[in-house]
């Protein structure tokens, strides 16, 4: 574009120079010759010297440059000739057109002078006839005007005579405004002729006016009258020249007392909001509460307008009253939204408040009610957003705690699964309802809402960030992982953390995973679609919505809660183990007769864990880690003992047993290292396996704290041998379980005074007897269940 503009500028400049040289009589006026001190090589200058220019060109340039300059100048000369020729043709056409126009004008105005003379004669004739008519009608017109003036005077006289009767009629009908208007209209005549011609009329009128003044004063201080009626009475009294300045304090005090009746009280706000919404669809709602409130505020505004005219120095106090009413509106609004309020109801009340502000702002713009309302509206809307998120957290908490979870329901039914599903629905539906309410607020076309749009979007983003952080902290507090705050205690309605079932902790862990994987991505999409942007001032004290950070928070919370569930279950089982080992005197323990009942209790606790995780967690894809054949066979109960234990049972004296223990310790040094505690996964097998590992580790520690005689050691050997089969069926890592069970036996042997294991036949016999007894017990339970059903 720059390369094309340069030639156009040069052409335009050349055309201007041609026109200037053509029309200007003095060559110095031309733009090309405006400079007196032009250089030698400026060919367009008036002081151009061809000889000097040629000498300069010959000195500075070679032959090739001179030839190029010759060709260039020849082209320029040709262009100039062409332009000049076109300019002459264009001017010639214009001259011809001007000549034709002058000829047409001469032909058109030919004969116009005669027509103008005729028109002048007609105008003079009309004027003469008009003067004749005016002269003949002058006397009659004067008479008519005189009669009209007399008629008007008689009307005024008649009005003065009828004034007392008119005033009496106004008193009866309480039309005090008309009465004051009639009296003030007759005052100029009564002042001039009231002592002579209209003395009786003036006296009767003044008596009626005194009655009107008393009635107006009574009306002014009557509590039953509306504010607008009082203001009208004050205006009428001032028109009657009654001094009302002494009444200013009382009138303004009455106006201030009326503020209480104009407030939107929290207990009445719902009715106003509902009627405001329904009145938009209904055509006739003249007596609704919102209409009554609007009329009351309108009367208050008119009263302020009247008092401002009556008492010009009361403007400051009236402004304070208007600002006080606006402030009370928003304070009551803040109280109203402390309970659960829908977005529709919130908007309904907000519209009513804004209408009140507009009415008062028209009367008292000096009060700056719009600015005050904008500041208060920001606070109120921000509190509503925060309260909405708090209500959602309350709903989620109520869903989690609404079921009275007891042990039987968890074992026999699927109560945990129901709680988890309801909690997921509460989170999804709650956030969806939140977005619907916020969209309704965002679409509001009230002027004050449009100004707060960016701030509102920022509050929503910040609100979701704070909500999920608070929800994560609430989950941890509910589980007892952290100390609960006053808010959490209130949400739990007096339930202590100790009374929270362990299964609920598992529900919280899985719900945290659901929020991380499903809810937060969905919230992110909704915010990007409808609530993007926002004002940075809305979250100046903290970050906006950061989904990556929240996902990390809930991922960490889910792991904490899952581990806390395992710890809680392990602690409960450890209580059973601690009672088992602290109650008997192991040094005086009797010869084992059967598997101890603590084994049944231990397996029962593990069975409960299994049923809980089946309701909440998915199955894993891991294969069981079994020991190699060199560590033992798994086909029969007797063959489940490892080779080292079989050798122990074959020996019959303590010397051989001690030798075998030495071999056991030596074998442990060369045995392949088994990884016992691995990362807990969100699968049924992983949770159960980790729980079993921790329980066996606790069992090992309890064993190390006791001292056993031969019978006590044999009882431990029997119990551990019986546990191997059911535990291996439950867990996924058989190698680690075998290792931990062996550790328990080794720990017991180390604390035994006389290590002599049970012989394999006796061990197998006792285990088979326990299995048969357990089978018979299960059959009886099944029969009882069938008969009861």
Automatic annotation (TrEMBL):
<dbReference type="InterPro" id="IPR014812">
    <property type="entry name" value="Vps51"/>
</dbReference>
<protein>
    <recommendedName>
        <fullName>Vacuolar protein sorting-associated protein 51 homolog</fullName>
    </recommendedName>
</protein>
<comment type="similarity">
    <text>Belongs to the VPS51 family.</text>
</comment>
<dbReference type="GO" id="GO:0007030">
    <property type="term" value="P:Golgi organization"/>
</dbReference>
<keyword id="KW-0445">Lipid transport</keyword>
<feature type="region of interest" description="Disordered">
    <location>
        <begin position="620"/>
        <end position="655"/>
    </location>
</feature>
<dbReference type="GO" id="GO:0048193">
    <property type="term" value="P:Golgi vesicle transport"/>
</dbReference>
<dbReference type="Pfam" id="PF08700">
    <property type="entry name" value="VPS51_Exo84_N"/>
</dbReference>
<dbReference type="GO" id="GO:0006869">
    <property type="term" value="P:lipid transport"/>
</dbReference>
<feature type="compositionally biased region" description="Low complexity">
    <location>
        <begin position="630"/>
        <end position="644"/>
    </location>
</feature>
<dbReference type="GO" id="GO:0005829">
    <property type="term" value="C:cytosol"/>
</dbReference>
<dbReference type="GO" id="GO:0007041">
    <property type="term" value="P:lysosomal transport"/>
</dbReference>
<dbReference type="GO" id="GO:0016020">
    <property type="term" value="C:membrane"/>
</dbReference>
<dbReference type="GO" id="GO:0000938">
    <property type="term" value="C:GARP complex"/>
</dbReference>
<keyword id="KW-0333">Golgi apparatus</keyword>
<dbReference type="GO" id="GO:1990745">
    <property type="term" value="C:EARP complex"/>
</dbReference>
<dbReference type="GO" id="GO:0032456">
    <property type="term" value="P:endocytic recycling"/>
</dbReference>
<comment type="function">
    <text>Acts as component of the GARP complex that is involved in retrograde transport from early and late endosomes to the trans-Golgi network (TGN).</text>
</comment>
<dbReference type="GO" id="GO:0015031">
    <property type="term" value="P:protein transport"/>
</dbReference>
<feature type="compositionally biased region" description="Basic and acidic residues">
    <location>
        <begin position="271"/>
        <end position="283"/>
    </location>
</feature>
<keyword id="KW-0813">Transport</keyword>
<feature type="region of interest" description="Disordered">
    <location>
        <begin position="271"/>
        <end position="292"/>
    </location>
</feature>
<comment type="subunit">
    <text>Component of the Golgi-associated retrograde protein (GARP) complex.</text>
</comment>
<dbReference type="GO" id="GO:0042147">
    <property type="term" value="P:retrograde transport, endosome to Golgi"/>
</dbReference>
<keyword id="KW-0653">Protein transport</keyword>
């Amino acid at each position: 574009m720059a390369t094309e503009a340069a030639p156009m500028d040069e052409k335009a400049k050349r055309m201007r120079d041609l026109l200037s040289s053509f029309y200007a009589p003095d060559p110095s006026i031309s733009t090309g010759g405006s400079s007196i001190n032009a250089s030698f090589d400026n060919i367009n200058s008036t002081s151009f010297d061809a000889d000097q220019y040629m000498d300069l060109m010959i000195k500075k340039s070679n032959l090739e440059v001179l030839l190029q300059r010759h060709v260039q100048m020849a082209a320029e000369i040709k262009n100039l000739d062409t332009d000049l020729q076109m300019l002459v043709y264009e001017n010639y056409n214009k001259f011809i057109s001007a000549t034709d126009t002058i000829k047409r004008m001469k032909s058109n105005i030919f004969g116009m002078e005669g027509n103008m003379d005729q028109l002048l004669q007609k105008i003079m004739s009309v004027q003469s006839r008009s003067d004749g008519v005016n002269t003949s009608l002058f006397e009659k017109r004067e008479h008519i005007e005189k009669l009209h003036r007399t008629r008007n005077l008689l009307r005024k006289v008649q009005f003065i005579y009828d004034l007392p009767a008119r005033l009496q009629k106004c008193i009866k009908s309480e039309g005090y405004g008309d009465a004051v208007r009639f009296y003030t209209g007759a005052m100029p005549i009564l002042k001039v002729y009231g002592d002579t011609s209209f003395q009786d009329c003036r006296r009767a009128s003044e008596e009626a006016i005194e009655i009107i003044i008393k009635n107006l004063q009574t009306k002014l201080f009557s509590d039953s009258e509306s504010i607008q009626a009082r203001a009208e009475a004050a205006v009428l009294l001032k028109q009657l020249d009654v001094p009302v300045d002494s009444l200013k304090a009382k009138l303004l005090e009455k106006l201030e007392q009326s503020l209480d009746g104009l407030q939107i009280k929290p207990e009445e706000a719902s009715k106003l909001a509902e009627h405001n919404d329904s009145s938009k669809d209904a055509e006739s709602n003249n007596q609704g509460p919102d209409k009554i409130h609007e009329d009351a505020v309108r009367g208050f505004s008119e009263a302020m307008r009247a008092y401002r005219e009556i008492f010009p120095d009361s403007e400051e106090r009236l402004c304070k009253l208007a600002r006080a009413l606006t402030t009370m509106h928003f304070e009551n609004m803040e109280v109203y939204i402390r309970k659960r309020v829908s977005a529709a109801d919130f908007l309904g009340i907000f519209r009513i408040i804004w209408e009140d502000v507009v009415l008062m702002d028209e009367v008292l713009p000096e009060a700056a009610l719009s600015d005050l309302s904008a500041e208060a509206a920001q606070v109120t809307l921000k509190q509503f957003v925060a309260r909405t998120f708090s209500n959602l957290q309350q709903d989620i908490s109520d869903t989690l705690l609404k079921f009275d979870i007891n042990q039987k329901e968890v074992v026999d039914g699927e109560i945990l699964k129901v709680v988890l599903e309801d909690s997921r629905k509460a989170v999804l539906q709650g956030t969806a309802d939140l977005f619907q309410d916020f969209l309704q607020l965002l679409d509001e076309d009230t002027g004050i809402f449009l100004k707060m749009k960016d701030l509102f979007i920022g509050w929503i983003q910040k609100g979701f960030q704070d909500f999920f952080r608070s929800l994560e902290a609430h989950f941890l507090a509910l589980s007892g992982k952290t100390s609960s705050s006053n808010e959490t205690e209130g949400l739990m309605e007096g339930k202590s953390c100790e009374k929270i079932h362990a299964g609920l902790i598992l529900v919280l862990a899985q719900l945290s995973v659901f929020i991380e994987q499903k809810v937060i991505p969905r919230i992110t999409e909704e915010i990007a679609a409808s609530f993007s942007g926002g004002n940075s001032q809305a979250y100046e004290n903290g970050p906006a919505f950061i989904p990556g950070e929240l996902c990390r928070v809930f991922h960490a919370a889910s792991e904490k809660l899952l581990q806390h569930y395992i710890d809680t279950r392990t602690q409960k089982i450890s209580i059973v183990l601690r009672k088992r080992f602290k109650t008997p005197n192991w040094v005086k323990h009797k010869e084992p007769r059967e598997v101890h009942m603590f084994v049944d209790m231990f397996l029962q606790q593990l069975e409960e864990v299994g049923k809980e995780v089946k309701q909440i967690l998915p199955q894993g894809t891991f294969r069981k880690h079994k020991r190699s054949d060199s560590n033992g066979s798994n086909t029969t109960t007797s063959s489940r003992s490892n080779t080292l234990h079989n050798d122990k049972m074959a020996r019959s004296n303590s010397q051989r047993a001690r030798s075998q223990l030495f071999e056991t310790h030596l074998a442990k040094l060369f045995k392949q290292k088994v990884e016992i505690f691995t990362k807990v996964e969100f699968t049924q097998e992983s949770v159960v396996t980790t729980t079993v590992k921790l329980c066996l580790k606790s069992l090992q520690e309890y064993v190390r704290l006791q001292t056993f005689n031969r019978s006590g050691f044999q009882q431990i050997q029997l119990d551990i041998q019986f546990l191997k089969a059911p535990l291996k069926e439950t867990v996924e890592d058989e190698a680690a379980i075998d290792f931990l069970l062996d550790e328990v036996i080794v720990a017991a042997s180390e604390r035994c005074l006389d290590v002599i294991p049970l012989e394999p036949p006796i061990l197998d016999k006792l285990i088979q007897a326990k299995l048969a007894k357990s089978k018979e017990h299960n059959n009886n339970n099944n029969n009882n269940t069938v008969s009861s059903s």
